[in-house]
Design goal:
The complex is a heterotrimer of chains A (88), B (997) and C (418). Chain B is α+β, with helices and mostly antiparallel strands. Chain B has 25 helices and 50 strands. Helix content of chain B is 23%, strand content 28%. In chain B, a hairpin with a 6-residue loop joins strand 6 and strand 7. The relative contact order of chain C is 0.18. Classes of the chains: A mainly beta (88), B alpha+beta (997), C alpha/beta (418).
Chain lengths: 88, 997, 418
């Protein structure tokens, strides 16, 4: 039972959240017309063994998207911030 | 075997009726089923898995491999219950399992004689069969193998008992209520931490419970317990097993609330699942004694030494009067001494040549004959031990002379002890081997929130047990912010030789040639012998995981609690390596088997998943609607009149809408408030079509794509105000669309000043459709709904009675139609108001089936077409896409395969003949064979009352160019082939005259 | 290779089982191979076997970081089926099924193919329609499939919940009679023994730590126990594909997730088929030993941890009881997890890569076990011919650039949803 320290709601069980995706992947600008940047954004992943920055959605809570640092080998949890507040 | 007249921790004033097979057992409150069996002279309890060899009681705890029975009967029947941890209760019935026709005479025992052929891996080498490309031969053999395998027989009856789950939070969870656990709880409790102390046994005390009553240990435990009970920050749970340690410092516990009585009391649960969030935990789970391996070591009457002492001191049962104790360490001396003092003739064979004088003296004072440098090489007997064959041995357990026969009805064995490190290992990985204690222990590291203490961490003495427990408890309390004084550490009390004292890691007694004298078992339940390990090694299955899987060692219900270390020792010898090099297998939860029902709690039957109900739901049910599942929702499917079936009802309902007026509950539609100065820009990006020109008071149909350019959802969005939009989504995709919108706004489009909120549950929605819809709503509301004031795709506010609502003019059915959005609490009221007022207009409710028929007649896409693999082009929605702006998916939708003109596209199908097509049928041209993936598939079908024929929608390759062609519709799994003409999917009123009227 | 048979078992038994030969050798590696396969699971060993058997390429090594069959081959729920409907998948999985049906004979190793059938239950009219489409595509491709209504499912599987209490009533099921189970470990061991007998070197306890390069081309692997040169390097490391691809400078359309599995204590026969619940990600079968094998869901977040979290334990057991209420008093014996290559459309890769000399077999999501024989067969073909067989023609890395998404569930590019 991973527990996530939501900046809005405090420490809550993983069951309140849904996992989103790799938070290092940058969505291209709306005007981007080439296919490859979109393919990279939508499909290709770094998929690291170890620390991973990732989006989680507090779907059963404040409905905020969060950027969480989590270790994919040990499931250790690092920092957790509102996605809105994270510099792109 | 007999019950002693005095002693033990049983209540002799409370006799219990306990029955095993046809035998009544003399049991008292405080007994376990196994102690009652021993008191009643039962030695044969079960049969082993593979060879159906006789099995007796081997232990007194959770590690029991042999005394496994059916418990209770009827719908409370429980297979594979361990007699050793089944508390006796009045009315307990148990029966033997895995034996036919009877436990005493089991046909399956023929396997025993065939055992040389059932060697390790024999299944893999045989039953292949002579027939190429056929699995029949194996499957025929398998039928018999399956019947012979398995252990207990389960029932198909529903479980009558209740279970519950509860969450708990604490600073320090102490697992195990023995001396180490009590010490840990004392330290943490005194420091002021919130402590939970859990113990799987009914009583606290751990190993002390196996000491004679009123020993020093008893008073130590009593004193610790009374102090703990006085601390209101300490909660104690007994009959509670910590089965797993999980991420996030979560621990799973099962509390057996009612398993010690015949049936749970009224309103009480059978078991309770605790999910405990503990900041720190102390694993004081003790150690399990290890068997010694020799010929016939599985016979009933061979028992762990410590268990014989437990039966003696805790249950006042002397398991036998002629006892041979076999050991490689000091702890068995106390066993021998206690048994002798209780009246048994005891011979102690110690594999070590030079046991300490101290322990030898202890034994001799009790008239125990001590034979150093001796081991048991074979147990003999039929269905129970009658003789022990003793032999002089060297330090490795190799025989140095010829065996001598000794009468014995019990062989008590101690091959050392194995710390119970399961929970630590589940959490942190493989434990490390500690050479001097010959066991695996936790690899304690900085930052671990779960720490071992006491014998679970291979403590060296009772004082060390207390010190470790106390220290771990104190450290845990400090770590969570309770650095208060923990007071003075409790003193140790007098006790016998400690468990790992003087251990010599010889684990088997073999002939001078290194062979076993008869079958020598390492895993008792799965019948894995030394020779099986040897064979696995010969064949190259040398890693511990290969060994386990090839021989099934450690995979029985005891999960290798007894077998693993001995098996590793053998493999290490064979490979000429150390045990650490050979390694151990991974410990997996649960520590002991847990019932499925306990984890499920109340979430079964109707409560398996939440159910979402429209605010108007109960009206539908009260008025006879047949309901159907739509994701989490339950919706009215149709409203049968009389004996009408689905087909008759939907045709009538759809006809009625076209001819008169109907209303349907569409409250399940997703509804999202989109608000803020940049709301139009947001809509412009997330929808394919343009939104900047939509005026307040109007609404528009929109299509949304996924990031990869496939269609995600569709629906109408109304502009309620300058910065205020009301978006509707399909019922199925509401949550997905909202989460997606939030993701975009919070991660990529942070500059947009927009807020999205679900308002699905705030609004009931009713669609009123049919030529009389305007007349009806004009009468019942205060709104001006004239064509001029409210053309299609406009909305207005209105009042029905005292309720303020919104009326959106839009049509899904193709009729003159309105959607009414009503504050949810008034949904049913407005529905009933409409229904009452509607009688003069012949208003009827209609369900999802006829709603589907109407939308198919109109050619609107829905779930079956929006199936996640279709593009706008495929569905004929391309025209909605704006070419003037980018939108979500606008680039990736243009990838080459998605632009292929031959892709299946949406068409209408007019089916020939009187029989309708089935959705999911495949489309083929008239010529050629019907095979492969076909030219497409049928997505939606209905009988069209308006057209008087069976119609369908489907996706057909080159569909646009095939209008007028007659094709085949093949439903292979329904044995149906039909012909149909390809037409436009806008079957009915393609100009939209009715909806715009 | 000693031929296995009842007779050989009998003869060895008379000799006290002392003369069994190793099932595969434990050789010292050569300095160079034609093909080095990274990963000694079912797919890697099958690839080696078919390279030797079908193409006569025997100068092959399989390099395994742990013990063979120790990854997902030894952790899965052993289901074998060929009920795929997307072009690109259908015939690949049917090839696999056909290979399964003769695999024990082919390998002279009983991998215990038990075609006890699989039911995919439907709980709404919409699910019935989707099942019909799948069944029709199977039948049109020569694969067996039947669609049953509720009454027929009830007649065949009377122990499921047909009561008023069922949250998701059973409307019917699609059934494949040739589906079933196989003994997972035996598949790895049988392929290992078969490959070894053709001269393939199986090198266990040897972890690949990097590649050997020559002018932009991969020419071998570095391992923790020395370098091994190879003309071609083939990855069969599902779960860790991303990691090994990254060492070669590739980013893959894959995320690694952990999938849980469960087994109960052994019982006398209760469930004689494979049943998939349609209302949650859950399926159940019973092993020959008697344990009920329960397949659960992904933990939903990227993970290499090979252990599962509590929420899915709860979810899986709740699904079990919802489907088959009588499991309530039965006991869970063990639960574990494997790490999966979850691809972006739910379908695999058997392909050359943009890096010359490097071939990729991965992206199996949680369907890799059933694919094992065909995966090896097609990968061997691809490695030898430098182009795919028609059955794996679409399992290419560039399919996302082209828009050829093979999405059986229609979930879109969300790896944990497949």
């Amino acid at each position: 039972m991973i527990r996530i320290n939501c900046p809005v709601c405090g420490l809550r069980n993983e069951t309140e959240f849904t996992y989103g995706a790799d938070a290092n992947v940058q969505r291209p600008e709306m005007g981007e017309e080439d296919t490859q940047p979109w393919v990279d954004y939508v499909f290709n992943r770094e998929n690291p063994r170890g620390w991973h920055r990732e989006y989680w959605h507090h779907a059963q809570g404040c409905r905020q998207w969060l950027v969480l640092e989590r270790n994919t080998l040990t499931h250790e949890i690092g920092s957790c911030q509102l996605a809105r507040g994270v510099e792109a | 075997m007999k019950r002693l007249p005095t002693g033990g921790r049983i209540d002799r004033t409370a006799p219990l009726k306990v029955r095993f097979d046809s035998q009544d057992l003399p049991a008292f409150q405080g007994d376990t089923l196994s102690s009652a069996m021993l008191a009643g002279g039962v030695s044969l309890v079960g049969r082993s898995f593979k060879y159906h060899r006789p099995r007796g009681i081997y232990s007194a705890g959770v590690e029991e491999p042999g005394a496994i029975v059916h418990l209770r009967d009827g719908n409370r029947h429980e297979p594979n219950a361990r007699a050793t941890v089944t508390e006796a209760f009045d009315g307990l019935t148990a029966t033997s399992q895995n034996a036919w026709p009877s436990l005493g005479f089991d046909i399956g025992a023929v396997n025993n004689w065939l055992s040389p052929f059932f060697s390790a891996g024999f299944y893999y080498k045989t039953f292949i069969g002579p027939f190429k490309h056929s699995t029949k031969f194996w499957m025929t053999c398998e039928t018999f193998i399956r019947k012979a395998a398995g252990m207990g027989r389960a029932t198909y009856l529903d479980d009558p008992d209740h279970y519950e789950k509860c969450n708990a939070f604490c600073d320090v969870l102490v697992i195990g209520g023995g001396v180490a656990g009590l010490s840990a709880a004392l330290a943490a409790g005194r420091a002021g931490a919130q402590v939970m102390l859990v113990e799987q046994d009914v009583d606290l005390g751990g190993a002390v419970l196996s000491d004679p009553v009123s020993s020093d240990g008893d008073s130590w435990v009593a004193s610790a317990l009374s102090e703990l009970e006085a601390l209101n920050n300490v909660r104690i749970l007994t009959r509670t097993t910590a089965f797993g340690a999980y991420d996030g410092d979560a621990y799973g516990l099962i509390e057996r609330v009612s398993d010690h009585i015949k049936a749970p009391e009224n309103h009480q649960v059978r078991q309770r699942y605790w999910l405990v969030h503990a900041k720190r935990a102390v694993m004081a789970t003790g150690a399990i004694e290890r068997p010694l391996v020799f010929g016939g070591n599985d016979l009933p009457g061979v028992m762990l030494a410590g268990a014989t002492r437990t039966y003696l001191n805790r249950y006042a049962v002397l398991a036998a009067e002629n006892v041979v104790v076999a050991t490689n360490n000091d702890s068995a001396y106390q066993v021998a001494t206690d048994l002798a003092r209780a009246g048994a003739q005891v011979l102690l064979a110690d594999m070590r040549p030079d046991p300490s004088e101290e322990v030898v003296k202890l034994a001799q004072q009790a008239d125990v004959t001590v034979m150093p440098a001796h081991g048991v090489i074979q147990a003999r007997g039929g269905k129970k031990v009658t003789y022990a064959m003793l032999v002089p041995v060297d330090v490795t357990g190799r025989a140095q002379g010829s065996p001598q026969k000794f009468e014995a009805d019990l062989i008590a064995v101690s091959g050392g002890w194995t710390p119970v490190v399961h929970l630590w290992s589940q959490r942190y990985g493989k434990p490390v081997y500690q050479e001097d204690s010959a066991c695996f222990v936790p690899d304690a590291q900085e930052g671990q929130t779960l720490q071992g203490a006491g014998t679970a961490a291979a403590a060296e003495s009772l004082a060390d047990v207390i010190a470790q427990g106390f220290a771990r408890g104190a450290e845990a309390a400090t770590a969570v912010g309770h650095p208060d004084s923990v007071g003075i550490i409790p003193d140790a009390f007098a006790t016998g030789p400690f468990w790992q004292q003087g251990l010599h890691p010889a684990w088997a007694v073999l002939t001078p040639q290194g062979k076993t004298q008869g079958k020598a078992f390492v895993d008792f339940q799965h019948d894995v012998k030394i020779s099986d390990i040897d064979q696995a090694h010969l064949e190259g299955y040398v890693s511990v995981e290969h060994l386990k899987r090839y021989t099934t060692l450690g995979m029985a219900t005891d999960q290798g609690k007894l077998a693993n270390v001995n098996a590793l020792s053998r493999m290490a010898e064979l490979r000429g390596k150390d045990i650490p090099e050979v390694g151990t297998t991974t410990f997996r939860p649960p520590f002991t088997p847990i019932s499925v029902g306990a984890i499920v709690g109340h979430e079964h039957g109707r409560h398996f998943r939440p159910t979402r109900l429209s605010p108007i739901h109960h009206w539908h049910v009260e008025n006879g609607a047949k309901m159907t599942e739509a994701g989490a929702w339950i919706r009215p499917w149709y409203y049968p009149q009389g004996t009408e079936d689905l087909t008759a009802a939907y045709i009538r309902e759809a006809t009625h809408v076209r001819e008169h007026v109907g209303m349907v509950d569409v409250s399940t539609l997703g509804k999202i408030a989109v608000q803020g100065p940049d709301a139009a820009e947001f809509l412009n990006r997330i929808y394919v079509n343009g939104w900047k020109t939509l005026a307040v008071g109007r609404l528009r149909y929109g299509v949304m794509l996924r990031e990869d350019g496939f269609v995600m959802d569709d629906g109408a969005t109304a502009r309620l105000g300058e910065h205020d939009y009301f978006m509707s989504t399909t019922t199925a995709n509401a949550a997905k669309v909202l989460a997606f919108a939030e993701h975009l706004l919070q991660t990529a489009w942070k500059d947009l000043r927009v807020h999205v909120t679900t308002v699905t549950d705030q609004w009931a929605a009713i669609a009123v459709a049919g030529s009389k819809a305007r007349a009806l709503l004009t009468q019942v509301s205060d709104a001006d709904l004239s064509r001029e004031t409210l053309p299609n795709n406009h909305w207005t506010t209105a009042r029905i009675g005292d309720v303020d609502i919104r009326i959106h003019r839009m049509s899904y059915s193709g009729e003159l139609a309105y959607e009414l959005y009503i504050p949810a609490g008034f949904g049913r009221h407005v529905w009933e108001t409409l229904y009452a007022a509607g009688s003069e207009f012949d208003l009827r409710p209609y369900g999802t089936e006829s709603m589907g028929a109407l939308r198919i007649e109109k050619g609107h896409v829905a779930g079956p077409e929006l199936e996640g693999r279709t593009t706008m082009k495929d569905l004929g929605l391309e025209g909605f896409a704006s070419s003037k702006k980018p939108f979500v998916g606008s680039v990736l939708r243009k990838r080459e395969v998605l632009e292929d003109p031959a892709r299946p596209t949406l068409v209408g199908l007019e089916v020939e003949g009187d029989t309708g097509a089935k959705p999911g049928s495949l489309l083929f041209s008239l010529a050629g064979e019907a095979k492969g993936h076909g030219d497409g598939w049928v997505s939606s079908t209905t009988y069209s009352p308006a057209l008087g024929k069976n119609i369908a929608m489907g996706l057909l390759k080159n569909g646009k160019d095939r209008k007028g062609e007659v094709i085949r519709i093949v439903n292979f799994v329904g044995d149906q082939t039909l012909k149909a003409k390809v037409v436009s999917h806008h079957f009915f009123d393609p100009e939209g005259e009715r909806q715009n009227g | 290779m000693t031929k296995y048979s009842a007779l050989s078992v009998f003869r060895h038994a008379l000799n006290g089982n002392k003369n069994w030969a190793r099932a595969w050798r434990d050789p010292e590696p050569k300095t160079e191979y034609d093909v080095v396969i990274v990963g000694g699971g079912g797919h890697g060993l099958a690839t080696a076997y078919y390279l030797a058997k079908e193409h006569g390429i025997t100068n092959v090594a399989v390099v395994e970081k742990g013990w063979l069959g120790g990854g997902n081959t030894g952790r899965n729920t052993t289901i074998v089926r060929s009920n795929y409907m997307m072009p690109g998948n259908t015939m690949f999985y049917e090839r696999s099924m056909k290979l399964w049906e003769n695999l024990s004979q082919d390998l002279n190793y009983n991998v215990m193919i038990s075609q006890r059938g699989q039911y995919n239950l439907c709980h709404s009219p919409g699910q019935m329609d989707a099942a019909r489409r799948r069944g029709n595509i199977m039948r049109a491709n020569g694969i067996d499939a039947e669609l049953f209504d509720r009454a027929e499912v009830r007649r065949r599987l009377p122990y499921l919940d047909y009561s008023e209490k069922a949250r998701f009533p059973i409307h019917g099921a699609i059934f494949q009679s040739r589906a079933g189970t196989a003994r997972h470990d035996a598949v790895a061991w049988g392929f290992a023994r078969g490959a070894d007998s053709h001269g393939v070197d199986i090198l266990q306890q040897r972890e690949v730590t990097g590649y050997l390069w020559d002018r932009g081309r991969i020419t071998g692997v570095q391992t923790n126990r020395g370098d091994i040169r190879a003309k071609k390097v083939a990855l069969c490391v599902a779960g860790h594909s991303g990691h090994l691809a990254k060492m070669a400078g590739l980013r893959l359309p894959i995320e690694t997730h952990s999938l849980q599995a469960f087994v109960t204590e052994p019982y006398k026969p209760l469930v004689d088929t494979v049943i998939s619940f349609g209302a949650a990600h859950f399926y159940i079968s019973q092993s020959d030993k008697g344990g009920l094998v329960l397949g659960g869901d992904l933990d939903m977040y990227n993970s290499y941890a090979q252990r599962g979290g509590l929420p899915i334990v709860e979810h899986t057991l709740a699904s079990a009881k919802a489907l088959m209420p009588s499991v309530s008093r039965l006991k869970l014996l063990r639960h574990w997890a494997g790490v999966m290559d979850m691809s972006m459309d739910g379908s695999p890769f058997i392909t050359k890569t943009p890096v010359e000399g490097l071939y990729l077999n991965g992206g199996w999501c949680y369907g890799g076990f059933k694919a094992t024989p065909a995966s090896g067969w097609c990968f061997a073909h691809t490695i030898v011919k430098d182009e795919p067989h028609e059955d794996n023609a679409e399992f290419r890395l560039d399919r996302f650039n082209r828009g050829y998404q093979i999405d059986e569930k229609g979930m879109g590019p969300q790896p944990n949803a497949h």
